[in-house]
TrEMBL record:
The active site is at 22 (proton acceptor). It comes from Marinomonas ostreistagni. It is an enzyme of class 3 (hydrolase). This is Peptidyl-tRNA hydrolase. One of its GO terms (molecular function) is peptidyl-tRNA hydrolase activity. InterPro entries: Pept_tRNA_hydro, Pept_tRNA_hydro_CS, Pept_tRNA_hydro_sf. The gene is pth. Hydrolyzes ribosome-free peptidyl-tRNAs (with 1 or more amino acids incorporated), which drop off the ribosome during protein synthesis, or as a result of ribosome stalling. Catalyzes the release of premature peptidyl moieties from peptidyl-tRNA molecules trapped in stalled 50S ribosomal subunits, and thus maintains levels of free tRNAs and 50S ribosomes. Monomer. The record marks 12 as: Discriminates between blocked and unblocked aminoacyl-tRNA. Belongs to the PTH family. It catalyses: an N-acyl-L-alpha-aminoacyl-tRNA + H2O = an N-acyl-L-amino acid + a tRNA + H(+). The record marks 95 as: Stabilizes the basic form of H active site to accept a proton.
Amino acid sequence: MAGFRLLVGLGNPGTEYENTRHNAGAQWIEALARMSQCSLRTEKKFFGEFGKVFIGGQECYLLIPTTYMNLSGKAVQAVCQFYKISPQEVLVVHDELDIAPGTVKLKKSGGHGGHNGLKDIISKLGNNRDFGRVRIGIGHPGHASQVASYVLKKAPSDEYQKIEQTIDESLRYYEDIVADNWNSVMNHLHSFKA
């Protein structure tokens, strides 16, 4: 069956990073886990918070790496090896500087665009970039030198609400996203603006 078996939400561990822009992907997976009554548990061998859930009749794995962002690939690689999951069956949900807060884009394959989490996942998957992405817009601070501190800050509340609305909106279509029925979903989500 086509579709994604491993859904990964990127973020940094620890309370000081909760609700920061860089943790938008982790928030998406946390929300999906709540919707599916799936409890995520710390799983040492997978270097992350991990859970199993049935989506559209297919068993899927939810993962939030608890390594730091730049080591996210370690967790993804561990789950892929254990469950024999190919890169094409991996969906990574992450914050995206190149799109505005309140927008979300789906993408198959592609580079890392300087995102350290994606960079590490690509390298740990043997330089395979053919995994799916849900890109949650967080906007850009305007200058490359400001990116590191920008992504690790909490967004101002109006911006944060837009990010949350985007997460909620995209999760309305999670079954189609996971089943890889992207055409209808993309038409809607790519024109959505919180």
